[in-house]
Amino acid sequence: MSAAEPLTLTLTDAPDEAQKAVISQGLGAYNDAAGGEGDYRPLAILVSDPNTGAVVGGLFGGSYRGQLFIDRFFLPANVRGNDLGSQARRRGCTRVSLFTLSFQAPGFYLKKGYEAAAELGCDPPGATRFLMTKRLTPGASN
Ligand SMILES: CC(C)(COP(=O)(O)OP(=O)(O)OC[C@H]1O[C@@H](n2cnc3c(N)ncnc32)[C@H](O)[C@@H]1OP(=O)(O)O)[C@@H](O)C(=O)NCCC(=O)NCCS
Question: Whole-model pTM?
């Protein structure tokens, strides 16, 4: 492939793992060269039924360059309201960020000291997607 050759662009809703890896590894190498070696680590907090050991909920995301990003956070209705959602722990990050929809939990995160850094209109009409973020003190318990 030379820079002068026309390239083929393909729009797909089903990229395979190898195709995604080309993009991820290329971006990772670019970031490492531009900003120093990265330190991405996945992170999950799993909530399990003590009788069966089955995972019933929790959160997952990843930490990277001092920031924790939460991808998904869910507790089933029968265990909500027990302060479980407040017990997220961290690993030396100085900021945590996540997206939440207006019909999900912006009120929960505001109570926990997050602020809305951005508010983006989305579907369905009237719904909003918030970027919530909170500064963390390394070593503190919450
Ligand atoms: C959001 C969620 C993880 C919070 O877990 P939880 O165990 O219910 O939270 P806690 O018991 O720690 O609640 C702490 C406080 O936040 C409040 N709160 C909890 N969920 C809230 C919500 N969706 N909106 C506003 N306030 C909320 C609680 O009332 C409580 O208030 P208090 O301290 O005045 O009593 C859980 O409710 C859930 O899974 N919801 C459905 C999925 C969802 O919205 N996930 C978030 C995606 S970003």
Answer: 0.89
